[in-house]
Amino acid sequence: MNSAKTYVNKHKDRFISELLDLLKIPSISADSKYKEDVRNMAEATRAALEKAGCEHVEICETPGYPIVYGEKIIDPDLPTVLVYGHYDVQPPDPMNLWDSPPFEPVIKNTELHPEGAIFARGSCDDKGQFYMHVKALEYMTSTNQLPCNVKFMIEGEEEVGSVSLGWFVERNHDKLANDVILISDTGMIAKDIPSITTGLRGLSYVEVEVTGPNRDLHSGLYGGAVANPINILAKMIASLHDDNKHITIPGFYDDVEVLTAEERAKMAEAPFDKEAYKKALDIEDVYGEEGYTTNERNSIRPTLDVNGIWGGYTGEGAKTVIASQAFAKISMRLVPHQDWEKITELFKNHFESIAPKGVTVKVKPHHGGEAYVTPIDSIGYQAASKAYEDTFGKTPVPQRSGGSIPIVALFEKELKSKTILMGFGLDSDAIHSPNEHFGIWNYLKGIETIPLFYHYYTQLVKEA
Ligand code: BES
Ligand code: MN
Ligand code: MN
User: What's the confidence (pLDDT) of residue 2?
Assistant: First the structure.
C-alpha cells in the first residue's frame, strides 16, 4: 500500500500552492491586532478540511479563538484517530532579521533542503505540519483507503497556552472520544534519521516586576544611594543558578523524574553530533547543567531561562537614568512528575524572598502545563514506527523533545488516550525565529507516511 507516494507525486504542486495560501494569513494569536486574520485562518482551515473529505466540519466558538472540528466516521466499530494541530503562529519579530517578509512565503534551496524549503512564519510550526494531515486525509478519502474513523481538532491558541482548548476538551468528551491522538508539531533528528517524539517538557511561564523608587532618577544625583531595580533584577536572576548550573529554588527538583542508568544509556544511543551542533549555532562550546549530556539537558532535565528583560533607557545614545522599574519574562521547562502550578508557587515564594529591602517584587504567572511521555510499546507507537520503516527504510529512533505542547498531558487526563507525535520538522527549521522554513521534502514525506500510520494502526488494533 504505497500508492500514497504516487498520489503525492501527482499532486505535489497543488499541495505546495495550497499551503502557500495558508501561510499568507498572519494568524498571530499573541497580538490582538491580528484578530481578524486569526479568524480568517480558522475559516480557511474549515474549508480545507471540508475539501479533503471531512464531514460535519464546524467552527466551534470558545471564550477565545475558535477550534476547527471535523470528522469522517466510516464505521463506529472501527478505531478512531484524533488529529490535533494549531493554525495560529508566533509573532514574526524581529522583522529586520527576515530575508523575506514572514507572510509572503517563498521557496528557496538551502544546504539541508536542496529540494527547496518554504520560508514563512508557520511553515513548520504548525501550518505545514497540520496540513500534511489534511492532505493525507484527502488521499485516503479520494482513493477510498481510509481504514478507520478520523476526527480533526485544529486550534488557534497553541502559541499562547491553549487556554480555550482546555475549556473545549473538558466540555466535549463524547465528541472527541478516540482511541489514539496523532500530532505533527515536533521534529525529527535528521532527514536520514527518522525519529518519533516520545516526550515533551512541561512549562511554567512567569513575568516578574521589580520596583524601586517611585520615579526614574538622575543616575548621578541618586546613583549609589538607592537600589537600582535593573541591577537588582540582574543579580536576582543570576542567583537562580549555581556554579554547576543547577537551579537554586528550594524544592525545585523534589519531584523530578530520575531515569535509570539503562534508560540514560538507551537515550545516548540516539545519534548526536556535538561538533555539528556547535557549528550550526556558531558557539565555541555547549553550556548547561553539570553531570548531564547536551541531549539530556534539553529533554529530561528541567530548566529556567529568561526570555526577555527590559527596563530603563534602550534608545539611541546615552541617557543617565536609574529606572523606577525592571521586568523580565521567565520560562521554566519541566519534566515528568513536576506539577507546574506547584513550581510556579515555589518560584514566586523564592523570588519574593530574595528581594533586598529597597525594592518590591511582583511575580505574575502566565500559563503552563505538565510534561508528557508516551510509551513505545503501545499500538500507536508501533504503527507509527512501521509507517516510518516503509517510507524512510529505517526504524525511527524514539526521542524525548525539550519543547512543550502542554495540552497533550491534558488530553491524556481528560480523554484517556495516548498521543503519538509524528513530527517532520528539523531543529534547523528556525521555528519561532526569523526565516522559519519547512523542507518540501519533509512536507511531502509526511503526507506519504501519515496514511501508513492509519493502515498499520487499524491492522494492529484488529489483531490485538
Ligand atoms: N510545536 C511547538 C512545540 C515543539 C516544537 C515541541 C518542536 C517539540 C519540538 C509548539 O508550537 C510550541 O512552540 N510550544 C510552546 C509552548 C506554548 C505553551 C507556548 C513552547 O514549547 O515554547
Ligand atoms: Mn507548534
Ligand atoms: Mn510554536
Answer: 55
CB atoms within 10 A of CB 140: 23
Residue 23 clears pLDDT 70, i.e. is over it:
yes
Confidence of residue 413 (pLDDT cuts 50, 70, 90): very high
Instruction: Report if pTM > 0.90.
Output: yes
Give dist(CA 45, CA 69) in Å, integer.
9
* Beta strand 397-400 pairing with 149-155: unpaired
pLDDT (tens digit per residue) in 101-127: 999 999 999 999 999 999 999 999 999
Which atom number of ligand 1 is nearest to the Cα of residue 197? Answer: 8
Q: How many CB atoms lie within 10 A of CB 178?
A: 20
Give the pocket of ligand 1 (CB within 6 Å).
125-126, 158-159, 161, 185-187, 200, 203, 401, 403-406
- Fold category of 203-256+302-369 in CATH: Alpha-Beta Plaits (3.30.70)
Q: How far is the CA of 127 from the centre of ligand 2 (A)?
A: 9
The pick from 158, 198, 335 for probing ligand 1's pocket by mutation, whose C-beta has the most ligand atoms within 8 angstroms, reads 158
Residue 247 Cα to ligand 1 midpoint, Å, equals: 22
Query: Tell me: the pLDDT tens digits for 345-368?
Result: 999 999 999 999 999 999 999 989
Say how far apart CA 153 and CA 223 lie, in whole Å: 56
Q: What pLDDT digit, counting tens, does each position of 53-112 carry?
A: 999 999 999 999 999 999 999 999 999 999 999 999 999 999 999 999 999 999 999 999
**Cell numbers that stand for 296 in this block:** 539530556
Secondary-structure class of domain 4-200+371-463 per CATH: alpha beta
CA distance 29 to 33: 9
Closest atom, ligand 1, to C-alpha of 162:
18
Ligand having the closest approach to the CA of 436: 3
pLDDT for 128: 98
Ligand 2 centroid to Cα of residue 109, in Å, is 23
| Nearest ligand 1 atom to alpha carbon 367 | 18
Domain regions of the chain by residue span: 4-200+371-463, 203-256+302-369
Atom of ligand 1 nearest to the CA of 125: 1
Nearest CA, atom 15, ligand 1: 404
Residue 448 and residue 4 in contact, taking contact as beta carbons nearer than 8 Å: yes
